[in-house]
Design brief:
Blueprint: H1 34-38, H2 44-58, E1 77-85, E2 90-96, E3 102-109, H3 116-129, E4 140-145, E5 149-154, E6 160-161, H4 162-169, H5 174-193, E7 196-197, E8 206-208, E9 214-216, E10 223-224, H6 243-247, H7 254-269, H8 279-288, H9 299-308, H10 319-322, H11 326-331, H12 334-345
Antiparallel strand pairs: 1-2, 2-3, 3-5, 4-5, 6-8, 7-10, 8-9
Helix pairs in contact: 2-3, 5-7, 7-9
Length: 354
């Protein structure tokens, strides 16, 4: 499989590995990470780009009642089990000591931000995700940093990655898959209304939150885009790359429609539609759009997927039509999903200004 990096390799997903203790050594700890402190500080200038951005972002930030936003430190949290790791850092389940509220804490060692490009990418991820507030998008509640680390306070999704479930169950039944597509459409409609494209939709970046609500996560490749400002960066996961990205012809939010079709196919079939043994064959299949379906897939699902996985971006079914498609109407339990939305909206912490 192929991973979500600028340089495509053979590891689709970064596996969970032991997390070094230096990620959560407090400033007052008696332990010292001599190896870290003795490393050359060549990447500090790149990390400074990020911390300067965080400082500038937080200084004028106030809550709606006019009181200053709380300044967090690592000592405000009890560190729990590791949840996983990504391109920039490790993620822990933590509990805020005062409120006892559980969140996910992503810890990034500054020395790992090795290039200005990575620094700007992380700044973009924080800038975009911190201003998004939708029940189907993983919240970024806040951020803080110390001399060695940058911390992101993220919404905790107890159901974990959809990808992990698919590894176990192989496929998602169509009734549940349709519900996930319905929710993902709602998330993408919200993003696109703000002229933001995700660019890396895949099961690894879909989490399951409380009440079974889908959460779109990992905004590392997200970007602002519109018709007058098309993007040209080659990024994402090879199995999900759209033809216009491969061709370098420029793309907009319609690239997420292609990914939505690939995601739907992979859920109910168990693998992406253009999966092959090597990168060259995958690229050839994408460009020639050699799409086929197993006999076990319903006709309505085939029709919807075929309307999304189209070489010409203008021919792809828009999101407002996807949620009204017969497959969604027939298979998804929309009433139950909408009821769960109301439960989330009533959540005190969801509506807080942490």
């Amino acid at each position: 499989m192929k991973s979500s990096t600028g340089q495509i390799n053979n590891n689709r997903n970064v596996e969970n590995q032991p997390i070094p203790s230096e990620y959560f050594l407090s400033n007052h700890s008696n332990k010292h990470n001599h190896q870290l402190s003795e490393q050359p500080s060549s990447s500090h200038s790149n990390a400074d780009l990020i911390t300067d951005h965080l400082n500038q972002t937080k200084e004028p930030s106030n809550t709606t009642n006019g009181t200053p936003q709380r300044q967090w430190t690592i000592n405000d949290f009890e560190i729990g089990a590791p949840l996983g790791r990504g391109r920039f850092g490790h993620v822990y389940c933590v509990r805020e000591k005062k409120s006892k509220y559980i969140v996910a804490l992503k810890a990034i060692i500054k020395d790992q931000i090795s290039t200005p490009r990575l620094a700007k990418q992380l700044i973009s991820e924080i800038s975009i995700q911190s201003r998004l507030k939708h029940p189907n998008i993983l919240r970024l509640y806040g951020f803080f940093h110390d001399d060695q680390r940058i911390f992101l306070l993220l919404e905790y999704a107890p159901g974990g990655e959809l990808y992990r479930r698919m590894q176990k169950d192989k496929i998602i039944q169509e009734n549940q898959a349709a519900g996930y597509v319905y929710q993902l459409c709602n998330a993408l409609s919200y993003l696109h209304s703000k002229q933001i494209i995700h660019r890396d939709i895949k099961p690894e970046n879909i989490l399951i939150g409380v009440y079974g609500i889908l959460k779109l996560a990992d905004f590392g490749w997200s970007a602002e885009s519109n018709q007058a400002n098309k993007r040209t960066t080659l990024c994402g996961t090879l199995d999900y790359l759209a033809p216009e990205m491969l061709n370098g012809s420029g793309y907009d939010e319609k690239i997420d429609l292609w990914c939505l079709g690939i995601f739907t196919y992979e859920m109910i079939v168990g693998k992406p539609p253009f999966d092959s043994q090597n990168q060259q064959d995958t690229i050839r299949l994408i460009r020639t759009n050699q799409l086929s379906f197993p006999s076990t897939i319903s006709n309505d699902a085939r029709h919807l997927i075929s309307q999304l996985i189209r070489p010409n971006p203008s021919d792809r079914m828009p999101l407002n039509q996807v949620i009204q498609h017969q497959w969604i109407i027939q298979y998804a339990n929309i009433k139950s999903i909408d009821d769960n939305y109301q439960k989330v909206y009533k959540s005190t912490f969801y509506n807080s200004n942490t």
